[in-house]
Design brief:
Length: 153
Amino acid sequence: MIMLFALSMILAGGVTYLIYEGLRLYYKLAVRYEDPLAQFRSMVRQIGDINFFLIVFIPLSIMFFFFLTRPYLKYFDEISNGIHHLANGDFSNQVRVSSNDEFGYIAREINVASEKLKEAVERGDFAESSKDQLIVNLAHDLRTPLTSVLGYL
């Protein structure tokens, strides 16, 4: 994401610079003082060239960043839906792996976890461990009051 942010800043800076230089060249070659564009140029000069550059640069940076991260946001939403299905017990849902970056790694790991959970449920691992845990808890709860009573004797 940091790389995409830097890329959007570079693209916005380049586009803004090209717009600025193009307008400057146009004003120099083709605009007369009476023309409304010349009045616009004097307004830009009053605002300041740097401020005008920032007024154009910041929205362009945001726009480029939005368009560059859009595919990642869709893929992140797909991974999130896969996790939601997994949390609700739907182990048949598979997340599509479409890249070899961190998101692809997460999608592969979700698919592996889904398969392992499906196998564990089919084997009945959770039911058996729940019974064992219940017996251990009951034994502890029964032993604790008896220990307290024996301490008084």
